[in-house]
Design goal:
single chain; mainly alpha; about 0% strand; elongated
């Protein structure tokens, strides 16, 4: 549904299968990196959340790229 709505306005930006998932993983990694180096303790307290988010994204990306069982 999200994709159909998006494509009513603009063409889908994915140029190859899995491209968007790769960018989602990159964003989670960038946020984790930021939080680990954040200047305040309140921001650094978010590290466990972003670490979990990064792991979840990596698992989803890995599952998507696994070949189908024969």
């Amino acid at each position: 549904a999200f994709r159909r709505g998006y494509e009513r306005v603009l063409p889908w930006p994915e140029q190859f299968p899995g491209e968007l998932e790769t960018w989602i993983v990159q964003r989670a990694l960038a946020m984790l990196n930021y939080e680990m180096q954040a200047p305040t303790q309140a921001e650094r307290d978010e590290v466990p959340f972003w670490l979990d988010t990064f792991h979840t994204c990596m698992d989803l990306l890995k599952d998507r790229r696994q070949p189908a069982a024969v």
